[in-house]
Specification:
about 10% strand, mainly alpha, 5 strands, binds zinc ion, flat, two-stranded antiparallel sheet, single chain, 13 helices
């Protein structure tokens, strides 16, 4: 919960408290004791919640809590850095350029009583193709083929590399989230016996936040979604087919694109495909150890490992097992930013 939401919640609680108190008193004056008691009972329940919130607030600003927070400062900082990195990884898909068809003004002055709000919603959404009923139902049978055709994704080496890159980063983001949660829980557990039980039990989410951890976003809504949408002209019947590019579908899509490229031009098919399976193979080959700093899963069980092209693709490096290495997320990020610098210089 964000801070202004909490503030709003407190204001609402205050208003309800006053309202229930006022109603209760009135019922007693009117000699409706039963109803009056119900109001006072509800007020009591609210009061308990209220007193608890105040006590928690006092505890979080106490010196003993600040001391605990300080003792894990370095660790929370590391976790928050990883959290930021995971959020960055999720943005990789944004690099895939869509065709800009331009913008036009459009007015619909028809007086028909169309049931069209749904149509309008989907017309403006991203990656939605408004199509005929036939296209929509065919897309369900061969989703990748229809996505390539109607969303203009050409089966080229360049696009294949882009989607491999997206898969690579999404894979790391998904692994990173659970590793980060483990790491965070271990840190919280290490100071858990110093924190009073009434905080640990009833206020855990807030406690983690007050300890300095940014919240981890576990939602998978960032996976790109392609939708085929059919609405009849009157708006009475509709059909929708949507395909989410999650890890499983991305793996399949990368293989699908490569199979078309191989079919077209056999030389391009000589390199390895950067799938989740290959990532795991490389990590295993490198003994789950970072090739740069030597940190490993053995030393740090929640370490996020990523796969790096030794000679980057932008410098004509290929996806071959000999050009791939395991790096920890920190070394990989350092290498990435160094490359960016050298490219801009
Ligand atoms: Zn490293």
């Amino acid at each position: 919960m964000s801070e202004d939401v909490i503030e709003k919640k407190e204001k609402i609680e205050l208003i309800i408290t006053i309202l229930f108190g006022w109603l209760g008193i009135h019922k007693f004056i009117d000699k409706q004791y039963g109803l009056g008691l119900v109001y006072f009972f509800s007020l009591g329940l609210f009061g308990i919640g209220w007193i608890y919130d105040i006590c928690a607030c006092v505890y979080y600003s106490s010196d003993s809590f600040k001391l605990i927070k300080n003792s894990i400062k370095e660790n929370t900082k590391k976790c928050n850095e990883l959290n930021d990195h995971i959020e960055e990884l999720k943005n990789t898909y944004a690099d895939i350029k869509r065709i800009d068809y331009g913008t036009a003004n459009y007015y619909d002055n028809s007086n028909w009583n169309y049931k069209r709000p749904a149509l309008k919603k989907y017309q403006e959404a991203k990656n939605v193709y408004n199509c005929s009923r036939t296209v929509c139902s065919n897309a369900r049978m061969q989703p990748f083929k229809y996505i390539c055709k109607y969303f203009n994704i050409k089966a080229t080496e360049e696009n294949l590399e882009k989607f491999e890159n997206v898969l690579n980063d999404f894979d790391a983001a998904e692994q990173g989230k659970s590793l980060l949660k483990n790491e965070r829980d271990e840190i919280v557990n290490s100071v858990s016996d110093k924190i009073p039980i009434w905080i640990k039990l009833f206020n855990r989410t807030n406690m983690i936040k007050k300890l300095g951890f940014n919240s981890i976003d576990f939602s998978q809504l960032y996976f790109p979604r392609y939708t085929f949408n059919y609405i009849s002209s009157g708006g009475n019947s509709s059909m929708q087919c949507s395909i989410v590019f999650d890890i499983e579908n991305l793996n399949k899509f990368v293989e699908y694109l490569s199979s078309i490229i191989k079919f077209k031009k056999s030389a391009a098919g000589q390199r390895a495909l950067m799938t989740s399976k290959l990532r795991e193979q490389i990590k295993k080959r490198d003994n789950y150890t970072c090739c740069k700093c030597g940190n490993s899963i053995e030393k740090e069980p929640n370490l996020l490992l990523e796969i790096d092209h030794i000679i980057p693709i932008s410098k004509n490096g290929l996806t071959t097992e000999s050009n791939l290495q395991t790096l920890c997320w920190k070394c990989n990020r350092k290498k990435g930013s160094k490359l960016d610098d050298s490219e801009t210089n």
